[in-house]
Each structure stands twice: as structure tokens, then as C-alpha cells.
Amino acid sequence: MTFDLTGRTALVTGSSRGIGNSIADGLAAAGATIVLNGVDQIRLDAARDALAAKYGQARVLASAFDITDEAAVAASVAAIEKSTGGIDVLVNNAGIQHREPLVDVSLQDWRRVIDIDVTGAFLVGRTVARAMLARGAGKIINICSVQTDLARVTIGPYTAAKGALRNLTRAMTAEWAGSGLQINAIAPGYIHTEMTQKLVDDPEFNSWILGRTPARRWGTTADLAGPAVFFASTASDYVNGQVLFVDGGMTVVV
Ligand code: NDP
Asked: Looking at the keywords, is Oxidoreductase present (predicted)?
């Protein structure tokens, strides 16, 4: 039962929709109690109700907070720790995109992307790790991107943020792996979600993706569930600080 997550609690940030929601669904299917998160309370409640119908209300919780708000993160993580007995798995998934040529990007937009895509993972990661370190166990999964390794026009802040998130994964590993925590990252390729809907609808971009991806298709959010279960379970107990690209092969071809 290496992949069994029964009895574990997993907090997935940004799980009211998209990739985070599918990862939470996958962790629950493997037996975990899941805590969904997002900022929009109405969307979050709807997501909780949908997954509770599948796995039961006791195993599907929701906590609305902004991952960049230090006080809100502290209060929410403390409340989740108390009500569940402890967070065993943290998935730092919440993230945003901003598309604009780099020369036109305002400092405000730059900071917004860096804040949510890197600083949020640091804040939630640091707060949850304090309790994990005290228990001597825990799994942290940071959701990176192919832009962790590769650049592309018009997404400079995101590319910088996702590269930083890869190295944050390494920094967390350097400091916390000796205390029984495993911190790894998943780097999704182009996945069809609300974030990428405009790209899917753009015939030129869509055909570029299909030509550029050896698997010849967009990823689905469900493609991320298996890798997340692996990193959340005892199957990955000696895997530390790695980035797993789940991208249909995009990053291995030119
Ligand atoms: P979506 O835009 O579909 O969903 C984003 C989620 O993050 C929502 O639940 C949203 O909550 C939440 N969120 C945004 N800001 C905050 C915040 N400050 N605090 C808490 N929650 C927040 O995104 P995707 O599912 O497409 O992407 C998820 C992750 O995967 C991101 O890190 C993204 O960079 C990464 N990724 C996505 C790829 C893709 O092709 N889609 C490819 C590679 C990586 P709310 O509903 O309240 O706004």
C-alpha cells in the first residue's frame, strides 16, 4: 500500500479550480482528507461541495485565505492543524500568469506575480513546515512549470517566479530533509485550464503546442494527480528536491 494516503491530511493551495482541484481530487481518491483553498469563498464552497459529494463531508474541508497574507496564512494554518490533527502534505499550487512584453511590465504587475507564485509558496511552506519539523515528517510539493527551465516571450515575471520556485524547492530540501521532510516539485507542461483557455482558443498557438509536444496533445488536470500522489506518499520517501516534468515530453525536444 505504498501509495495509500488513508489517515493523511493534505492542504492544496489554489484548489477551488484547475490543476489544484484535480490534485486534491487525486489525493482524496488515494485516501487523504483534503483541505481546499482559494480566495473566492463562493467558488471554494462550490468546489468543496462537489468533492464532498464524492468522498464525504468529513474528508473534504475548505479554508479560504490569500497565500500572500502572512497573518491570514498563520491563522488559517493554525486552525487547520487544530481541526485535522496536522497537515501531512502541502501542495503549493496557487499561482497566476501575466502576459505582456517584458519592457512594458509595470513594477506592480511584476510584484503581483512574484508575490503569489513564489512568496506565497514560501509563506505557506514556512508556516506548515514549522509544524512538520516538530513532528519529524511531512511532504511538500511545489507546482512549478516548464517555464521553470524554459523561457518564452511575454511571460517574463512568471518565468522568473517559476525558476525561483524550483530553487526554493532545493533550499527547503537543504534545510528540512534531515528532519524527515520530503520537498519536491511538479512542473506541468501546457495544461488546459482557465489560465490557458485563451491559448487553447487561439488556433495558431494551439497548433504550435500540438507540434511542439511529443505527446501531441494538451495535458489534462488529471495528468497531474498520479505524480502528486507519488510525491505525497511513502513511495517517494527517498526522493528529495527533485522536479518532475509532466509535460508530454515538451522539455526534452527542440
Ligand atoms: P487557475 O487559474 O485555473 O486556478 C488558480 C487557483 O489559484 C484558483 O483556485 C485561485 O483561487 C487560486 N489563487 C490565485 N491566487 C491566489 C491567492 N493569492 N491565494 C490563494 N489562492 C489563490 O490555475 P491553474 O490550475 O492553471 O494553475 C495552477 C498552478 O499550476 C499554478 O501555479 C500555475 O502556475 C501552474 N501551472 C499551470 C499550467 C497550465 O497550463 N495551466 C502549466 C504549468 C504550471 P480563486 O478561484 O479564489 O481565484
From this structure: yes
Domain residues for the domain of 240 are 9-245
pTM metric for this prediction: 0.98
Indicate whether residue 47 lines ligand 1 (CB < 6 A).
Answer: no
Contact call for residues 162 and 144 (beta carbons, < 8 A): yes
Q: What is the rounded average pLDDT for all residues in the chain?
A: 98
Mutate to test the pocket of ligand 1, among 169, 193, 201, 202 (most ligand atoms within 8 A of CB): 193
Ligand 1 contacts CB of residue 13 (under 6 A)? yes
pLDDT, tens digit, for every residue of 115-145? 999 999 999 999 999 999 999 999 999 999 9
Identify whether 120 is part of a domain.
yes
List pLDDT tens digits, range 167-180: 999 999 999 999 99
Q: What is the rounded average pLDDT of the residues 236-241?
A: 98
The CATH number of residue 228's host domain is 3.40.50.720
Is 4 part of any domain? Answer: no
1 within a domain of the structure (yes/no)? no
Catalytic-residue membership of 158: yes
The torsion of the CA quartet 254, 192, 45, 75, rounded to 10 degrees, works out to 10
The label of the residue with cell 505557506 reads 124
Q: What domain count does the chain have? A: 1
> Residue 3 falls within a domain, yes or no?
no
Distances, alpha carbon 163 to alpha carbons 64, 126, 130, 137, 160, in Å: 27, 19, 24, 26, 5
